[in-house]
Write a structure and sequence with these properties.
The protein is of the alpha+beta class. The chain has helices spanning 2-18, 25-31, 33-36, 41-57, 90-101, 109-121, 153-162, 236-243, 262-267, 289-294, 306-321; strands spanning 23-24, 63-66, 72-75, 166-170, 179-191, 194-201, 206-211, 215-221, 248-257, 270-275, 278-286, 300-304. The strands form 3 sheets. A 5-stranded antiparallel sheet has the order 7-6-5-4-8. It has a 4-stranded antiparallel sheet with strand order 10-11-9-12. Strands 1-3-2 form a 3-stranded antiparallel sheet. Helix 5 (90-101) packs antiparallel against helix 6 (109-121). The longest helix is centred in the N-terminal third of the chain and has 17 residues, at 2-18.
Length: 322
């Protein structure tokens, strides 16, 4: 039914855009197959009026013209429905190119590629895959990329767009086994190479942020509407930063294997070589810092404070048991 209606709307739009003079309802009925198959004039009239309003809601400008013989005609003039020229500056073109790269391994890869090709044909400074964007700026040897390899990315993105509740199994960093979560997803955001999803956790009746790489199994959609209002602004990055120890409440000393852990080195307040392939770092310490350290595995050893060392050990033991 949805495909039939979409085809009918497309045919009506093409008729109204392709004519040089207004077409009457009688002429439109004899030109479009779905209207020809209508059971009665009344049925056709109701169908046509609905279709005409749907096209107007979609943005098509349809004029109603009174004919000399008293018949009413309809036309969609091209000059009234022509979009203005597309103009993008270098930053906007780069943002579009980068957004399209997210879909390289997703279902919309073909659509994203086709959209970029049309923009390039219109003269936009968009690069082909693997090329730099040339907008009068010097070429860079580095090409920004946003990874989207998690299997949960696409179903969660669609659920955020369509406002559909989801169910999935989620393993916290300090848990041995995953547990089921029922979530109303709000938004996805990439931070430091990882994707996070913010939403309303129905079981805990509170806002939560989930790291996509910790979702196990399939993301299943559920029927029904959201039970909690969606905030105008969702602070995903701020929440993740606080969990990852970005909001420091003190400092910690750690041993880090030489030539490893560059994200930690970038935040270090001081670095001292210890020899034997190890360095000592003094680094800001905050809530959730232990979860971040665990990700570096055997390349990190916590020296102090004792509470942080104990938390890291507990997390590693929970992972080993799992």
């Amino acid at each position: 039914m949805a495909i039939a209606k979409a085809e009918r709307l497309m045919n009506l739009a093409l008729c109204l855009l392709g004519t040089r003079r207004p077409l009457t309802k009688r002429e439109l009925r004899s030109s479009i197959e779905a209207y020809i198959e209508a059971n009665s004039d009344e049925s056709f009239s109701r169908m046509f009026e609905r279709d005409k309003e749907d096209l107007r809601e979609l943005g098509l400008v349809i004029e109603t013209v009174d004919g000399i013989d008293g018949d009413v005609g309809y036309v969609a003039r091209r000059d009234s429905n022509r979009l203005p020229p597309i103009t993008l500056d270098a930053e906007e073109a780069a943002a579009l190119g980068l957004a399209a790269k997210i879909w390289q391994q997703a279902r919309l890869a073909g659509a994203a590629s086709g959209a970029l090709q049309k923009l390039r044909a219109a003269g936009m400074p968009l690069a082909a895959d693997g090329e730099d964007i040339d907008a009068g700026q010097p070429h860079s040897a580095l090409e920004p990329r946003i990874p989207a390899h998690e299997a949960a990315f696409e179903p969660l993105m669609l659920a955020c767009r369509d406002r559909r509740p989801v169910v999935f199994d989620y393993r916290k960093s300090n848990a041995a086994r995953p547990e089921q979560r029922q979530v109303e997803p709000w938004i996805l955001e990439c931070w430091r190479g990882h994707w996070y999803m913010a939403g309303w956790d129905r079981d805990r009746k509170a806002e939560r942020v989930f790291r996509l790489s910790r979702i196990t199994g399939k993301v299943r959609s559920r029927q029904g509407k959201f039970t909690a209002p969606v905030p105008d602004h969702v602070t995903v990055r701020e929440t993740v930063e606080s969990w990852a120890g970005e909001t420091a409440t003190g400092t910690a000393k750690i041993k880090l294997r030489a030539e490893h852990g560059y994200p930690l080195r970038a935040r270090a307040l001081s670095v001292r070589e210890l020899g034997d392939g190890w360095d000592e770092l003094e680094i800001p310490n905050g809530h959730g810092f232990d979860a971040w350290l665990v990700e570096f595995g055997p390349d990190v050893v916590v020296l102090e404070p004792a509470e942080l060392r104990a938390d890291v050990v507990d997390r590693l033991r929970a992972v080993a048991k799992g």
